[in-house]
C-alpha cells in the first residue's frame, strides 16, 4: 500500500490529471427484500433499537457520510397474501433516526419520506426538528408512491397518475423549502432585559398556492443548523432525473457497475446546467452490495453462498411471478422454467413492489430467460440467482478498495451507499478492512472535518429563496 | 441478537430491582414540559436557557432531572402552529416563546439517554395520519424499551387548518364554546380523535406477539396468520393495515388526553389510559372522577383501570412568601397575571404535598405538574416535593418497573386480534 504522506505515489496509481476525488460512503440499513439474509445464524433483530445503534455506530466509527433508511408504507403482498419470505416490519423513519442522533455525533441521518402520503407542514417540522436534534445531520430522500394499494392506509387514499406523482413531489419539495426558509436564523433574540424573544412577529410566515397545495400561515420550527435537510432523490425515470437535476443534492441510484454508472453519471450531470447548477452540486451515490473474503477466491465462494441464501427455492418462484404475473406455486424451483407465457394484463400478483415495473416487456424477458436457462442448464432457482442482483463488489479488502476507488475516479459514481446483507453486523468487516485502505490512499477521510452532513458531502449552505 | 418478539409479560412489568412496591397510598407524578415553563415570562428568568430551547441538550437535561426524581413520566407539549396567548387565534406577540420542535422526536432523542422514565409526547389528531402516528409511537416504544405513550390533542384553530389546506374551520372564541355551531364542531373533532386513537390502537395490535418466527426450514420470516388487517372505516378516514411496525414492547403504549368538558371526558372514558383534568378543589375532583368513570362505563370499559391525573401549575419555593413573590414578579414581567385552565399553586413542597394528598383522597390517582419555570420548578419538584412525598410514604423510592405501563400498574394487554382468533 502506498504511504499516505507520499502524494506522488498515490497520484501515480491514478493516472488522472485532476486531483483525486474524495469518496463518499454511506450505510443503508438492510431492507425488507431478499438482499437481506435473515436466516443466517449471525442475523439479528430488524426492529430492536440495539441493531440500529450498532449499525449506525459502526458507520460512524468508519467515518461514513451518513446512514440511509428506506421506507415502504404498506406491507408487500403476493398472490393476495402478505409476503412472508423476506424481512417484514420496520420502525418509523423519523423516530428511529432521531433516536440514533443520541448515540452518534457526526453521522448523517437520511430518511426516505414519501411525498404522496404526507403533508408539507408536518414533514417540514419533522425534518427541521431532526436537524435541530442532530445538530445538522438530517437528509431527506424524497420519494413518491405509485399506487392506491399504499393509499389504503391514509386519509387521502387514492392514486396518482405517473405524471402527477412527480408534479406533486416537486411541489411538495418546493413548499417544504418555503417552510424551511420562512425562518432566516436571526429571529430569536431572547433578550431578557427588554423581554424580546422574537425580533419579528412574522417569523415563519409563508403562503403557497399551487396545483397540489394551497396553504398559508406560520411555520413553527426556527431555522435549523443546515437550513434545510440535504435532499436525495431516487427515481430513475426521465422525470426523476430532471427532478434530481433541478432540486436534489444527491441521487441514490441503482447503477453500481462501471459502464452503467458512467452512463447515468454523465446523463444526470449533463442536465445540471439547464437548471443553472454546477457539476459539484449533485452527488451520484449508487446503492452497492458487497462480499469480502481473505482472498478474492474466498470472497467469490462466499458470494455464491450468499446468493443461495438470498434466493431460496420459494423466493425464486415468487421472483419469477414478478415477470409472469401468475401464480407459479405449482412449479418446482429446481426444475425448468414455465413454458406458459406471462399474463400481460394489469399486474396483480405482487403488490407494494417497485421492481415489478422494471419488466416492461414480460414476454421478451420470459423468452430471454428461457433461452439462457436452457443454454446453461439452469433451474428456476439457478436462473433467479444468476439474473438477479449480483453483489456489486466481491473480493479481498484490497480488491474492493481498488474497485470502489477506480469507479469513483472514473466518474461512475461520487461514492456508494453500501447495502450489507446482514443485520446488524454486516458493515463491521468493511469498516475494519476496506475503509483503512481507502484512507491510506488519501481518498477517504480519516476524521470528520465538519459537523453537519452538508460539511461531509461538500455541499454549500442553501441560500434562502 | 434476539428476535423482535417482546419479552413475556412478567419480565416486562415486574421489577428487576429489589425496590419495594409502592404502597397503596402512593400517588403517581408526571411533569408537563413546555418550552421554558408554563408561565409566559419563564424564559426571562436567569435560570432559564431560552436560546437552548431548540437543542437536544436542553430537553435531555430536563428529562434526566425528572428521572432523577423517579417521576412516572414527562409529557411534551406540541402544536401544528405557533403558540398563542389567544384561545383559538394566533397572536403577534414577540415577548413570549414562539416555535417548538416536534414532540415525538424530542421524546425519541431523549429515549436512549434515559432508562426508566415514561415519555409521553403530544400528538395532534386533527390533521395527522393515524398510520404515521401509530408507527411513530410504536417506534418510540422500541427505542425506549417500553416507555412510550402519547397525549392526544385536537386542534380547532383556523390557522392550523390553513397549514394543511384540507379543511376550513370557523372563527370562534372561548365565549362561544356553548353555541350550537361550536358544540357541533368540537363534538366532531373529538369524534375524529376517538377514531384516530382507535386506528392507532388497532395498528399496534395488528401484529400479534411472536408474529416474527424466522422459520429457516420453511423460509418464512413471519407467520402471516398473526398479522391482521384492521379494516377501519370511519367518517374522516379509512385505514387498511396492518402496521409496518411490529407490536411495540408494551403491546399498547399509554394513551392520555387532557379533558375539561364532556366531549373530552367521553374520549378519555372511551379510549384513554390516563385523563388529565383540572379540578380546583377536592369537590370538583370528586365530580370529574365520577364523570370519567361514568363515561368509561358507557363505553363498556368499566372494569379497566383508567387513571385520572390532576393538572396543576406550580411555583415551588422553600417558603410561601418567596413563591408568591416570584409569581408576582413573573406576572409583572409578562404584563398581566398568568391565568390557566388548571389550578395555580404557589407555595412550599410540604404545602403542595398536602394538596396532592387531599385531591388524591377525592379520587385522583396522580398528578401532572406544570412547572411555571422549568429550570426552577422542575428541580423543586424532584428535589423538594418528591422527598416530602417519600417521607409520607406516598411516593416510590426507586423505579419498581421498567415500562411505563408497569409504573402505572397497567398490565400488558392481550392482543385484540389474538383473542378474536384464539
UniProtKB/TrEMBL annotation, chain A:
It holds the Pfam family Bac_luciferase. Residues 39-410 form the Luciferase-like domain. Keywords: Flavoprotein, FMN, Monooxygenase, Oxidoreductase. It comes from the Bacteria. Signal peptide: none annotated. Belongs to the NtaA/SnaA/DszA monooxygenase family. This is LLM class flavin-dependent oxidoreductase. The lineage of its organism: Bacteria, Bacillati, Actinomycetota, Actinomycetes, Kitasatosporales.
Amino acid at each position: 500500500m502506498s504511504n499516505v504522506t507520499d502524494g506522488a505515489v498515490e497520484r501515480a496509481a491514478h493516472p488522472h490529471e485532476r486531483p483525486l476525488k474524495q469518496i463518499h460512503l454511506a450505510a443503508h440499513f438492510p431492507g425488507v427484500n431478499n438482499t437481506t439474509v435473515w436466516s443466517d445464524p449471525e442475523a439479528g433483530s430488524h426492529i430492536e433499537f440495539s441493531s440500529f445503534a450498532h449499525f449506525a455506530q459502526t458507520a460512524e466509527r468508519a467515518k461514513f457520510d451518513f446512514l440511509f433508511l428506506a421506507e415502504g408504507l404498506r406491507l408487500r403482498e403476493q398472490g393476495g397474501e402478505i409476503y412472508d419470505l423476506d424481512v417484514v416490519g420496520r420502525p418509523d423513519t423519523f423516530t428511529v433516526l432521531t433516536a440514533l442522533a443520541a448515540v452518534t455525533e457526526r453521522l448523517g441521518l437520511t430518511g426516505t419520506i414519501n411525498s404522496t402520503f404526507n403533508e408539507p407542514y408536518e414533514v417540514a417540522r419533522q425534518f427541521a426538528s431532526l436537524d435541530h436534534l442532530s445538530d445538522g445531520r438530517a437528509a431527506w430522500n424524497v420519494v413518491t408512491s405509485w399506487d392506491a394499494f399504499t393509499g389504503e392506509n391514509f386519509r387521502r387514499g387514492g392514486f396518482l397518475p405517473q405524471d402527477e406523482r412527480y408534479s406533486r413531489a416537486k411541489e411538495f419539495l418546493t413548499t417544504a423549502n418555503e417552510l424551511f426558509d420562512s425562518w432566516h436564523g436571526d429571529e430569536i433574540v431572547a433578550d431578557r432585559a427588554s423581554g424580546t424573544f422574537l425580533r419579528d412577529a412574522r417569523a415563519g410566515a409563508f403562503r403557497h398556492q399551487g396545483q397540489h397545495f394551497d396553504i398559508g400561515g406560520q411555520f413553527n420550527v426556527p431555522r435549523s443548523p443546515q437550513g434545510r435537510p440535504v435532499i436525495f432523490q431516487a427515481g430513475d425515470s426521465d422525470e426523476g432525473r430532471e427532478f434530481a437535476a433541478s432540486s436534489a443534492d444527491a441521487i441514490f441510484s441503482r447503477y453500481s457497475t462501471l459502464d452503467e454508472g458512467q452512463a447515468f453519471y454523465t446523463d444526470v450531470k449533463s442536465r445540471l446546467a439547464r437548471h443553472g447548477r454546477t457539476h459539484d452540486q449533485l452527488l451520484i451515490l449508487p446503492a452497492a452490495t458487497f462480499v469480502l473474503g481473505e482472498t478474492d477466491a474466498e470472497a467469490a465462494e462466499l458470494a455464491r453462498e450468499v446468493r443461495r441464501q438470498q434466493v431460496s427455492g420459494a423466493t425464486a418462484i415468487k421472483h419469477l411471478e414478478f415477470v409472469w404475473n401468475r401464480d407459479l406455486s405449482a412449479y418446482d424451483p429446481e426444475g425448468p422454467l414455465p413454458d406458459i407465457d406471462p399474463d400481460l394484463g394489469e399486474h396483480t400478483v405482487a403488490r407494494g413492489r417497485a421492481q415489478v415495473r422494471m419488466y416492461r416487456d414480460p414476454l421478451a424477458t420470459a423468452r430471454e430467460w428461457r433461452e439462457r436457462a436452457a443454454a446453461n442448464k439452469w433451474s428456476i432457482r439457478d436462473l433467479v440467482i444468476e439474473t438477479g442482483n449480483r453483489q456489486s463488489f466481491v473480493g479481498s479488502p484490497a480488491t474492493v478498495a481498488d474497485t470502489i476507488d477506480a469507479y469513483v475516479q472514473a466518474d461512475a459514481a461520487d461514492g456508494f451507499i453500501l447495502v450489507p446483507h446482514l443485520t446488524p453486523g454486516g458493515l463491521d468487516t468493511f469498516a475494519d478492512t476496506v475503509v483503512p485502505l481507502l484512507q491510506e490512499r488519501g481518498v477517504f477521510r480519516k476524521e470528520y472535518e465538519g459537523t453537519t452532513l452538508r460539511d461531509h458531502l461538500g455541499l454549500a449552505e442553501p441560500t434562502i429563496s | 441478537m434476539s428476535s423482535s418478539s417482546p419479552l413475556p409479560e412478567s419480565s416486562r412489568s415486574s421489577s428487576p430491582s429489589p425496590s419495594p412496591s409502592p404502597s397503596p397510598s402512593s400517588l403517581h407524578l408526571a411533569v408537563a414540559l413546555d418550552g421554558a415553563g408554563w408561565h409566559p415570562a419563564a424564559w426571562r428568568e436567569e435560570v432559564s436557557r431560552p436560546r437552548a430551547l431548540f437543542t437536544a441538550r436542553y430537553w435531555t437535561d430536563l428529562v434526566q432531572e425528572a428521572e432523577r426524581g423517579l417521576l412516572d413520566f414527562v409529557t411534551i407539549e406540541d402544536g401544528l402552529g405557533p403558540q398563542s396567548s389567544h384561545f383559538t387565534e394566533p397572536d403577534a406577540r414577540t415577548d413570549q416563546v414562539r416555535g417548538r420542535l416536534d414532540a415525538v422526536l424530542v421524546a425519541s432523542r431523549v429515549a436512549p439517554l434515559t432508562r426508566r422514565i415514561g415519555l409521553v409526547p403530544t400528538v395532534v389528531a386533527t390533521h395527522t395520519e393515524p398510520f404515521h402516528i401509530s408507527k411513530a409511537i410504536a417506534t418510540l416504544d422500541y427505542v425506549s424499551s417500553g416507555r412510550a405513550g402519547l397525549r392526544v390533542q385536537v386542534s380547532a384553530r383556523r390557522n392550523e387548518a390553513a397549514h394543511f389546506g384540507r379543511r376550513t374551520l370557523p372563527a370562534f372564541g372561548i365565549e362561544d364554546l356553548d353555541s350550537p355551531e361550536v358544540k357541533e364542531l368540537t363534538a366532531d373533532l373529538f369524534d375524529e380523535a376517538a377514531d384516530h386513537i382507535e386506528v392507532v390502537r388497532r395498528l399496534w395490535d395488528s401484529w400479534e406477539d411472536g408474529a416474527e418466527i424466522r422459520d429457516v426450514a420453511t423460509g418464512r420470516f413471519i407467520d402471516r396468520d398473526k398479522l391482521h388487517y384492521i379494516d377501519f372505516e370511519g367518517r374522516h378516514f379509512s385505514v387498511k393495515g396492518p402496521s409496518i411496525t411490529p407490536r411495540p414492547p408494551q403491546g399498547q403504549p399509554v394513551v392520555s388526553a387532557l379533558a375539561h368538558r364532556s366531549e373530552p371526558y367521553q374520549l378519555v372514558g372511551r379510549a384513554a389510559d390516563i385523563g388529565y383534568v383540572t379540578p380546583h378543589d377536592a369537590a370538583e375532583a370528586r365530580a370529574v372522577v365520577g364523570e370519567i368513570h361514568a363515561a368509561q362505563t358507557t363505553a363498556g370499559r368499566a372494569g379497566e383501570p383508567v387513571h385520572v391525573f390532576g393538572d396543576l401549575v406550580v411555583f415551588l419555593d422553600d417558603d410561601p412568601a418567596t413563591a408568591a413573590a416570584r409569581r408576582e414578579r413573573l406576572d409583572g414581567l409578562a404584563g398581566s397575571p398568568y391565568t390557566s385552565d388548571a389550578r395555580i399553586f404557589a407555595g412550599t413542597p410540604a404545602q403542595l404535598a398536602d394538596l396532592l394528598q387531599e385531591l388524591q383522597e377525592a379520587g385522583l390517582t396522580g398528578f401532572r405538574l406544570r412547572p411555571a419555570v422549568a429550570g426552577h420548578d422542575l428541580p423543586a419538584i424532584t428535589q423538594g416535593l418528591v422527598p416530602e412525598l417519600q417521607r409520607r410514604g406516598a411516593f416510590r423510592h426507586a423505579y419498581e418497573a421498567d415500562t411505563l405501563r408497569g409504573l402505572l400498574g397497567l398490565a400488558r394487554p392481550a392482543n385484540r386480534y389474538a383473542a378474536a382468533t384464539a
